[in-house]
Amino acid sequence: HLDTLIAVNQRKLAKLKALKQGYLQKLFPKNGSKFPELRFLGFADAWEQRKFFDNIRRTVDFRGRTPKKLDMDWSESGYLALSALNVKNGYIDPSADAHYGNQKLYDKWMTGKELYKGQVLFTTEAPMGNVAQIPDNNKYILSQRTIAFDVASDKITNDFLAVLLRSPKSFNELSSLSSGGTAKGVSQRSLSQFKVTLPKSLQE
After folding, report:
1. Which of 40, 111, 172, 175 would suit a FRET pair with 125, their CA atoms being 20 to 30 Å apart?
2. Could you tell me if residue 25 is inside a domain?
3. Per-residue DSSP letters for 116-180?
């Protein structure tokens, strides 16, 4: 009975994922177009292309930083470290590759660049392209192969940025800009060449 239930839900999940991908393709303009197929009522203006970093106030990037480089070590409890292994596509899995830092490590690592609820996370490699948002007001340590974006709030919202980066169009373009063989990776230089198309109206 349980096997049947699992199989039914797996088929339902596969259909929902396909439906989501279909909607994501319609919610953003296709190549060469400035108009998405699906829009909210009351908006008809053409979208505009911008450099990705034109919408970002600051990138929080600690790639290469480890506790040992700070003359410290991980703890058994404390603040969860976010890495490319526990930042999944759409959520954070605290049980995957869980490492924790104590208050002293957190202060030394994150001071001045603390993460906040809703902030967008992006895995740069192994795997490349997973997108999640900080789910709550807890404090986290930004660890290996994961970066966070501080948006220019007059140009884009965190929620829109998360959906934009998860869209098939963005993933394909970032993949073409990425380096590496089997394990693709996105650098700051790659992101500087990345262009996005989005509404002129922040309300939309």
Report:
1. 111
2. yes
3. -TT-EEEEEBSSEEEEEE--SS---EE-TTEEEEEE-TTT--HHHHHHHHHSHHHHHHHHHH-B-
pLDDT digits (tens, 9 = 90+) for 46-89: 999 999 999 999 999 998 899 999 999 999 999 999 999 999 99
Domain coverage including residue 163: 2-198
| Structure token pair of residue 101 | 């830092």
- Asked, for residue 204, whether it belongs to a domain, the answer is no
* 203, part of any domain: no
CATH number at residue 107: 3.90.220.20
CA pair distance 157, 114, nearest whole angstrom: 18
For residue 156, give the amino acid letter: I
Q: Are 105 and 70 spatial neighbours (Cβ–Cβ below 8 Å)?
A: yes
- Residue found under tokens 């096997």: 3
pLDDT tens digit sequence for 126-170: 999 999 999 999 999 999 999 999 999 999 999 999 999 999 889
Annotate 60-105 with three-state secondary structure.
EECCCCCCHHHCCCCECCCEEEECCCCECCCCECCCCCCCEECHHH
Compute the residue count for the chain.
Answer: 204
